[in-house]
């Protein structure tokens, strides 16, 4: 039965990806009442299927996206300071292939990249010579080197949701937005949770941040305007055993003018991607195809001494990016910029739609969205997110925090301390402080995943399934066997079947 007393809020945000979570955090920090609903897991679709980069996008310069690159490079520096636990600078090498792009063009692109990052530059780009000890084929004698940023994308979503909740937002996962209509000057929306229970939410504003579902969400809103056309583009990645032991990433040029990243991943693997393929159908059903696997492996094998076979792929993932439609433009050349559309007026239900975007500029997008909405909420506070760390990020540097924890938790192994710092920063204190011995970490599910961490993720970070824990909150799924996964599933099922303590 649908409740007769609706929940009351200023903003109902539909979509728990990076844009929805970022807007929720910004709005709640300005003093607005916020409810966010996500039909699956936070960051469970596009936002956890990126190349894990915080970057300006060197390749976007060829498309003359100078404004986007400049904004993204500025945000890169902001985010590296906001979340030092889940982000870090990453050195890239671009092997030179004269027949693909001449030296002068690459030098010009890197010069522009450096200039657009002026004041936010991590390190100046340079030309280096390759030696016979490196991982590349001997025919490649020159690389160009520059520095960008790496991020744990799924955890970035979680941290923004935690920031929103800390400021008073209500985060509803596994809760589907059914429909909304105008009633007495407000939106009345129906939400349905995983158990089929319905709840009405009365809201001044609906924020449609549902990513690749942005247009289909509009169909469920009464009197919604026609959407700006969105183009769905599939990007796929593969994970293989480590191609080389060093810490740099590579950006590989292909004959079709696309580029492919090879990125060190979880210490023992290499992440390879991405593809750009137009996509139709349900974004929830996306998966990599054999042609994409072949495409990525062919490029890598043309550059690296180690020749990787399809059977070496240990994991793959795909995401659907909702990009702004541009006529007569290939999938890889479509702009990664965004558009924020606001419809409504004071005392009339307001709707804000988010089209396009990239993970690097999520904070800027959220800030601009709230600046647009502020005229409807005179009591809203000023922008605040550029200088405040995300949860767990209130520390100066990882080595200092690791040393602090070695003294504070001498019973923890150095490997676990390193993992916890990289995953949680100071948030790990929430499950470590009540403990005094290693035995109190509880059941060991394998590969450094203990009961104390699992319980914390379920209790405080909205984890519900084994996939939530193994692939988004952590990346332990890369090591877990089928039996170990089943053990974790059985534990979660037993915990969820227990009655809730009042």
TrEMBL record:
Cofactor(s) required for function per UniProt: FAD
Domain of life: Bacteria
Keywords: FAD, Flavoprotein, Oxidoreductase
Location of the Alpha-glycerophosphate oxidase C-terminal domain: 385-479
Residue ranges occupied by any FAD dependent oxidoreductase domain in the UniProt entry: 10-327
PANTHER family: GLYCEROL-3-PHOSPHATE DEHYDROGENASE, GLYCEROL-3-PHOSPHATE DEHYDROGENASE, MITOCHONDRIAL
GO molecular function: glycerol-3-phosphate dehydrogenase (quinone) activity
Cross-referenced Pfam families: DAO, DAO_C
Membership in a protein family: Belongs to the FAD-dependent glycerol-3-phosphate dehydrogenase family.
Cross-referenced InterPro entries: DAO_C (IPR031656), DAO_C_sf (IPR038299), FAD-dep_OxRdtase (IPR006076), FAD/NAD-bd_sf (IPR036188), G3P_DH_FAD-dep (IPR000447)
KW Nuclease (keyword) present: no
Coiled-coil annotated residue ranges, if any: none
EC number: 1.1.5.3
Signal sequence, start to end: none
Entry keyword ATP-binding: no
Reactions performed catalytically: a quinone + sn-glycerol 3-phosphate = dihydroxyacetone phosphate + a quinol
Root EC class: oxidoreductase
Designated name of the protein: Glycerol-3-phosphate dehydrogenase
């Amino acid at each position: 039965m649908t409740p007769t007393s609706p929940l009351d809020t200023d903003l109902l945000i539909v979509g728990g990806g990076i844009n929805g979570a970022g807007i929720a955090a910004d709005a709640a920090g300005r003093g607005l009442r916020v409810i966010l609903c996500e039909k699956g897991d936070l960051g469970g679709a596009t936002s956890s299927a990126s190349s894990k980069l915080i970057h300006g996008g060197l390749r976007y310069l060829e498309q003359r996206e100078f404004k986007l690159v400049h904004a993204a490079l500025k945000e890169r520096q902001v985010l590296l300071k906001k979340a030092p636990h889940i982000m870090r600078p990453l050195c890239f090498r671009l092997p030179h292939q004269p027949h693909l792009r001449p030296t002068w063009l690459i030098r010009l692109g890197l010069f522009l990249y450096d200039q657009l990052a002026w004041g936010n530059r991590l390190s100046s780009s340079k030309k280096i010579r390759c030696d016979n000890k490196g991982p590349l084929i001997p025919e490649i004698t020159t690389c160009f080197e520059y520095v960008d940023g790496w991020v744990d994308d799924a955890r970035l979503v979680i941290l923004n949701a935690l920031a929103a909740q800390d400021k008073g937002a209500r985060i509803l996962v596994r809760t589907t937005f059914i429909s909304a209509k105008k009633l007495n000057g407000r939106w009345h929306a129906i939400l349905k949770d995983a158990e089929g229970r319905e709840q009405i939410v009365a809201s001044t504003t609906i924020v449609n941040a549902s990513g690749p579902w942005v247009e289909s969400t509009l169909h469920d809103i009464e009197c919604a305007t026609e959407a700006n056309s969105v183009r769905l583009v599939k990007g796929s990645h593969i994970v293989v055993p480590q191609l080389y032991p060093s810490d740099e990433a590579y950006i590989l040029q292909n004959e079709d003018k696309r580029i492919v990243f090879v990125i060190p991943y979880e210490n023992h693997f290499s992440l390879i991607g991405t593809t750009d393929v137009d996509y139709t159908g349900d974004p929830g059903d996306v998966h990599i195809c054999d042609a994409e696997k072949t495409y990525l492996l062919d490029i890598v094998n043309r550059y690296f001494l180690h020749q990787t076979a399809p059977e070496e792929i240990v994991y793959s993932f795909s995401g659907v990016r909702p990009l702004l439609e541009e006529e007569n433009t290939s999938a890889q050349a479509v702009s990664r910029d965004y558009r924020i559309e606001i419809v409504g007026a004071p005392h009339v239900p307001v709707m804000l739609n988010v089209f396009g975007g990239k993970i690097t500029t999520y904070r800027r997008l959220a800030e601009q969205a709230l600046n647009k909405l502020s005229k409807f909420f005179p009591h809203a506070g000023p922008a605040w997110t550029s200088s405040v760390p995300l949860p767990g990020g209130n520390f100066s540097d990882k080595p200092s925090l690791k040393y602090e924890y070695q003294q504070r938790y001498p019973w923890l192994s150095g490997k676990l301390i390193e993992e916890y710092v990289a995953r949680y920063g100071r948030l790990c204190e929430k499950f470590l402080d009540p403990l005094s011995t290693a035995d109190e970490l509880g059941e060991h599910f394998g590969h450094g995943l203990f009961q104390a961490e699992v319980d914390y993720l379920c209790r405080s970070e909205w984890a519900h399934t084994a996939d939530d824990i193994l692939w988004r909150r952590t990346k332990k799924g890369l090591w877990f066997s089928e039996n170990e996964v089943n053990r974790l599933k059985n534990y979660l099922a037993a915990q969820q079947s227990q009655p809730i303590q009042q």
